[in-house]
């Protein structure tokens, strides 16, 4: 879309009239107040703007409510201090008062009444409202809804309302069936009829199809093109395996398709340079290895209209050497027609932290399978009414459960111990095998799969493990972003390039994962860059493409035992997320061949974005050299001969052997054919080479750099002479845990966990997060301006913003809406933030400069239409404005640390832990209530956002409208900046540490201390 430098006449007149009316109103106010009251008249002119945000639910805390006279309580914030913050001597005196008057006059609902695309933008996206199951994405064919299309046995687009009702109806029937069987059970002398799990609970089985639970609109458009578009006969003949395996779609076929098979970047197919650059075609002889043409549709389905779902071609193997749009359609073809189904569905109740597990009948996928072709829809359609409120009521009637926690709690603190970081492989196998043989009991499908995985680990060596998780990194033109998407569900670059969509999806996954863990009585926490982002403002770094999540090893195994190979459904009252939980090899805890450092992933099935899950444990790896002093002290005080009988319980018998012993067994095993033996021995040798290389690197830290002599013989013996079991024992006794990637940490840093919020999601974090972050990153000591990855951290706004957004706003020439004839360059109002030799990088903006900056970041007045990048900018600003209160909450946590507890600053000091716990407890339940009932959520639901982006395909987005919409949303943040006391959130206070040493460590001077009862928590007082 080309930007045009003019404004439609109709809108231009509207703005002139508005300016005249505003001017007349101001003159009348001046006269009525005899001019002497001018100081307050412009301020009193501002009408009420209702504010709906989470803070309106929070009770007063910490700070006493100010007993100041408020000029007029109808105003949304305290204007008592307006003139103090905006003195008449200020160079921005006039422009600030005009800006506030203009912002208060915005009436978006009246302005947008003529353009469908803009209605979608304002009411379906930027208002952040979420009504459960209310969103109805119209199917392409005749604007008909999902139910109608399914009734006509035509491709129907994924609809949460549709799959939720069918799933819950199946569940209700399963409960009824189990009750009848239980009654028959009693009448048949207790002969078993129903399946029950290890604790005697009956199992509920339902049908599942990927087609109904994964966003399928592009795939459906493909089906519509080949089956019943006006030229479907021609399309059916043209499409073959090359269509899904050449680098780009065949342009001659693509242009004939009536329905778009992809939405993002499709304008590229009209550019000759692009077509020449991507002209690579797969060799016809190779096609048969990746794809096959199915039998005629009539042979598959007879005369049934189910043939509308026949794909004609079946992708049997993923081909990465294609562009994202081709890869997506190829991947959907494989998922919907051949990918094995999950073992179960986890329905997660976020409000109560509970779950219900439904198990899947027949986990093999049949070609063209969905709830229509497998008969589920036909079975229940007369019971369906697709009423959102009734479906939510059905959800509320599910018999949810919550397991007893395996951690302990002291007040608001979570406590775990050493044994949470240990896993006994052999004992767990024996436990499950015993349960499997128990009379009248059965392992769940997930437990059976988990047991088989453990047995595979028990009879193998870590060097033989191939890489389990594959990313979409080899897909052409992903520019490195494919690394952050699971290869099975990757769709396009839109989930990386539209930051709001990416962050929305990740937040929904995190909310669901944390609620799942709570319901299972387990703990886990965000780590690495996500913890670092939280430290600043309670939010992720915008440029982060995934979430890192850690669990103690025992907790991770219990999660895998319960839900591995399951789809977790987000609570429909909070969003429409569907996430696949997948664990790879959970055996030996060493680095091994380095291919499986990630233990598990929670994957968004619409985009492939994921949360990386890693288990923390004691293991037998050589520790990081930064802990050599700790190691030296331990080895000097203990006899290593006492370690001989220690065992690493996570090792298999093969992993406990010396490499030469394992190699001999492989060579002598008669049941293995020659090729398998070769592969096993080759993998062993490669892994040994990598381990020797790593040991040499660690060895250097224990040698004199001048002559290469050994500095400490005990450390040398630890590295080279101890067995895996003995080294495990040493690591455990000195208290060092790690993931598989050798990130060693003192276990005591994880033993006490505290509550906080991350993106308005209640989470727990290790109480000593500051030590963890200092050990991993070089943390700046001040809460000040920073620049990284094309983003800047602006401390006054407590957020990261794109540098170009800010610099553009600094230098923008724009039309002042209150004076149409005047053009103003922002340089005359505010100094440049461009980083150069003459500008102090630590410069901060005044309140008025910050408000003007925000106002002008929303300026699209000189563009008749805006492109996706600028649209994304509006969405980012809107989301940032909505989550400003999350940053305020984090700000208060920091103010407690840096102010309330004085000189003894410590994130693990009892005074800080107690204060922050009280702060959290006052808010947590109200936050959950707000998420369910509030008018303005943190984010719009990701599934709806994705659908809206698709529906905006080929529609115009007007720059004038987006300017007003954007300013409407940032005005709430300007109000928050104005009101330092936050009338509705008086406890947040106004502690100001911008530019002050917030993260500075006073020094390792002295005092050892303990956290509650953890007397061994030997960390220096911060």
TrEMBL record:
Q: Is Metal-binding given among the entry's keywords? A: no
Mode of membrane association: Single-pass membrane protein
Give TM regions: 16-36
One Gene Ontology term of the biological-process aspect is:
glycoprotein metabolic process
Q: Which UniProt keywords apply?
A: Membrane, Transmembrane, Transmembrane helix
Where does the signal sequence lie? none
- Please report the name of this protein according to its UniProt entry: LicD/FKTN/FKRP nucleotidyltransferase domain-containing protein
Asked if Cell membrane is a keyword of the record, the answer is no
* Domain LicD/FKTN/FKRP nucleotidyltransferase stretches: 520-778
GO CC terms of this entry: membrane
Compartment annotation: Membrane
């Amino acid at each position: 879309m080309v930007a045009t430098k003019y404004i439609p006449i109709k809108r231009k007149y509207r703005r002139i009239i508005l300016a005249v009316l505003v001017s007349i109103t101001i003159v009348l106010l001046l006269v009525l107040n005899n001019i002497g009251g001018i100081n307050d008249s412009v301020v009193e002119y501002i009408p009420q703007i209702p504010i709906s945000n989470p803070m309106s639910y929070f009770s007063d805390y910490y700070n006493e409510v100010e007993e100041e006279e408020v000029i007029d309580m109808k105003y949304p914030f305290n204007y008592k201090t307006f003139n103090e913050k905006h003195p008449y001597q200020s160079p921005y005196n006039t422009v600030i008062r005009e800006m506030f008057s203009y912002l208060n006059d915005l009436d978006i609902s009246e302005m947008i009444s003529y353009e469908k695309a803009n209605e979608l933008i304002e009411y379906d996206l930027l208002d952040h409202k979420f009504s459960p199951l209310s969103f109805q994405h119209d199917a392409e064919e005749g604007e008909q809804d999902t139910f109608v299309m399914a009734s006509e046995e035509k491709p129907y687009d994924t609809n949460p309302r549709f799959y939720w009702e069918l799933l819950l109806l199946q569940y209700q029937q399963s409960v009824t069936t189990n009750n009848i069987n239980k009654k028959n059970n009693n009448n048949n002398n207790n002969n078993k009829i129903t399946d029950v799990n290890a604790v005697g609970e009956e199992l509920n089985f339902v049908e599942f199809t990927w087609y109904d639970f994964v966003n399928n609109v592009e795939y459906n458009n493909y089906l519509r093109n080949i089956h019943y578009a006006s030229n479907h006969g021609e399309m059916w003949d043209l499409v073959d395996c090359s269509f899904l395996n050449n680098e780009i779609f065949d342009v001659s076929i693509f242009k004939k398709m009536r329905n778009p098979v992809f939405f993002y970047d499709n304008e590229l197919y009209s550019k000759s340079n692009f077509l020449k650059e991507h002209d690579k075609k797969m060799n016809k002889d190779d096609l048969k290895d990746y794809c096959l043409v199915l039998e005629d549709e009539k042979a598959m389905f007879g005369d049934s209209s189910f043939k509308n779902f026949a794909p004609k071609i079946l992708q049997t193997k993923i081909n990465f050497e294609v562009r994202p749009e081709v890869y997506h359609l190829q991947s959907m073809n494989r998922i919907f027609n051949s990918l094995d189904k999950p073992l179960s569905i986890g329905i997660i109740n976020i409000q109560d932290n509970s779950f219900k597990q439904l198990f899947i009948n027949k986990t093999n996928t049949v070609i063209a399978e969905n709830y229509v072709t497998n008969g589920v829809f036909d079975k229940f359609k007369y019971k369906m009414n697709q009423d959102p409120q009734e479906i939510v009521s059905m959800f509320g009637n599910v018999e949810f459960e919550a397991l007893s926690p395996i951690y302990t709690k002291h007040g608001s603190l979570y406590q775990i111990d050493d044994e949470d970081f240990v896993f006994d492989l052999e004992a767990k196998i024996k436990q499950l095998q015993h349960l499997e043989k128990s009379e009248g009991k059965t392992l769940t499908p997930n437990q059976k799969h988990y047991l088989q995985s453990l047995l595979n680990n028990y009879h193998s060596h870590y060097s033989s493990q191939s890489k389990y998780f594959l990313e979409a990194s080899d897909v052409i033109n992903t520019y490195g972003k494919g690394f952050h998407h699971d290869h099975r569900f990757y769709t396009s670059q839109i989930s990386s390039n539209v930051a709001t969509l990416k962050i929305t999806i990740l937040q929904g996954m995190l909310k669901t994962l944390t609620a799942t863990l709570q319901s299972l009585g387990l703990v886990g926490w965000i780590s690495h860059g996500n913890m670092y982002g939280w430290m600043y403002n309670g939010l992720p770094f915008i440029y982060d493409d995934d979430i890192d999540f850690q669990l103690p090893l025992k907790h991770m195994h219990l999660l895998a035992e319960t839900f591995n190979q399951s789809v977790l459904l987000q609570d429909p009252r909070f969003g429409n997320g569907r996430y696949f939980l997948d664990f790879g090899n959970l055996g030996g805890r060493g680095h091994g061949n380095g291919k499986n450092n990630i233990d598990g992933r929670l994957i968004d099935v619409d985009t492939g974005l994921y949360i990386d899950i890693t288990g923390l444990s004691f293991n037998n790896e050589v520790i990081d050299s930064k802990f050599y002093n700790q190691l030296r002290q331990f080895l000097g005080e203990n006899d290593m001969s006492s370690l001989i009988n220690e065992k690493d319980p996570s090792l298999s018998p093969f992993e406990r052997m010396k490499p030469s012993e394992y190699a001999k067994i492989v060579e002598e095993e008669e049941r293995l054919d020659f090729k398998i033996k070769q592969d096993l021995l080759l993998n062993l040798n490669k892994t040994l080479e990598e381990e020797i290389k790593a040991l040499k690197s660690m060895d250097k830290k224990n040698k004199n750099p001048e002559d290469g002599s050994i500095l400490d013989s005990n450390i040398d013996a630890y590295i080279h002479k101890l067995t895996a079991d003995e080294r495990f024992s040493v690591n455990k006794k000195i208290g060092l845990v790690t993931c598989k990637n050798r990130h060693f940490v003192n276990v005591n840093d994880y033993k006490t966990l505290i509550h906080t919020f991350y993106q308005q999601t209640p989470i727990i974090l290790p109480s000593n997060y500051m030590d963890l972050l200092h050990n991993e990153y070089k943390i700046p000591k001040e809460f000040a301006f920073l620049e990284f990855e094309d983003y800047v951290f602006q401390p006054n706004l407590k957020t990261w913003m794109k540098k170009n957004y800010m610099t553009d706003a600094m230098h923008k020439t724009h039309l002042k809406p209150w004076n149409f004839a005047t053009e103003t360059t922002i340089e005359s109002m505010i100094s440049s933030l461009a980083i150069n030799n003459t500008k102090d990088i630590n410069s901060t903006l005044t309140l008025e400069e910050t408000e003007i900056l925000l106002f002008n970041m929303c300026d699209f007045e000189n563009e008749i239409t805006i492109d996706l990048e600028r649209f994304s900018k509006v969405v980012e600003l809107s989301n940032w404005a909505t989550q400003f209160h999350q940053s305020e909450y984090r700000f208060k946590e920091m103010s407690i640390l840096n102010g309330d507890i004085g000189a003894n600053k410590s994130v693990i000091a009892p005074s800080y832990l107690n204060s922050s716990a009280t702060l959290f407890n006052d808010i947590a339940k109200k936050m959950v209530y707000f998420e369910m009932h509030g008018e303005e959520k943190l984010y719009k639901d990701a599934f709806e956002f994705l659908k809206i982006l698709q529906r905006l395909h080929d529609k115009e987005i007007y720059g004038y409208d987006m300017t007003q919409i954007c300013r409407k949303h940032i005005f709430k943040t300007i109000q928050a900046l104005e009101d330092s006391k936050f009338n509705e959130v008086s406890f947040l206070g106004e502690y100001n540490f911008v530019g002050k040493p917030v993260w500075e460590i006073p020094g390792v001077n002295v005092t050892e201390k303990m956290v509650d009862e953890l007397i061994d928590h030997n960390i220096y007082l911060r």
